[in-house]
Amino acid sequence: MLIVGLTGGIATGKSTVSNLLRSKGIPIVDADVIARQVVEPDQPAYNAILEAFGSDTPDLLLPDKSLNRPALGRRIFGDDKARKVLNSITHPAVQKAMLYETLRAYIRGAAICVLDVPLLFEGGLDAYCGVTVCVACSDSLQLDRLQKRDTHLTKEDAEARMRSQMSMQDKRDRADRVIENDGSLADLETNVGALLDQIKPYQVVSLLEWLVPPFGLTMGLWTLLARRVQAKPKAKL
Which GO terms describe its molecular function (predicted)? Predict the structure, then answer.
């Protein structure tokens, strides 16, 4: 099974690409969705957050007992120690859930599984992907889309959010494939189709990986090794 790491900048169209891939029957492991699920009430990470921050964050819970995310964000803002504590709780839970969903896709015989991860490179998850894909667009278009999506943001606020992330050029440079999303939705659909044509694994290889798990494990280990010793070529779409 080919694991595809999908990333992009804020408001560049990553979620749209993810939805297009899902519409083609490709399983998507969405890191943002999982990050919300692992901190739902009574989940281990939820209980650990209450234990770590409940005593000094009185508004940590909403009336329905779910986490008050803005309050938690304010609690850790500017506090590196608190941020590290929160990350030590949530990151392992998210990674475990993502691994579980990826294994489910493999067991079901999927030829491709997409990891939709905004911080793919920052978190080092690209090391586990056979192909990494970045959805990008021009800075001016990214700013325009962000302000239209989040209408409460001033231009300065939107620019600050863009600057807070890894630059689009750095993501372009690190990705194996780059989808430039400066055109229409129809253009994007065409580019996604072209991407799948380029990366689609041979059917016989996918079948062998599914029927012979040691072969699949060997292919996975080879991917990990290749990520460390080879510089892969990029193709723009």
Answer: ATP binding; dephospho-CoA kinase activity
